[in-house]
Amino acid sequence: xxxxxxxxxxxxxxxxxxxxxxxxxxxxxxxxxxxxxxxxxxxxxxxxxxxxxxxxxxxxxxxxxxxxxxxxxxxxx
Length: 77
Fold this sequence. Notes:
There is one protein chain. This protein is an alpha+beta fold and 77 residues long. It has two helices and three strands, in the order E-H-E-E-H. The radius of gyration is 13 Å and the shape is elongated.
């Protein structure tokens, strides 16, 4: 899942928001920056996951994106 980094004066506010969300709401993952994209990563090792853990990981990412959509959507350019 990716969102482009905004190229405006709101970048600092966006970075602060991402760090706050990482600390408070991300269960097994984090928001990260890859080149010019904001991505969601999972910190669990895929090689050792069973099906239940994989499904829980996808659910956690989906829940976080749904919960954070309005906050992060304000930064879309």
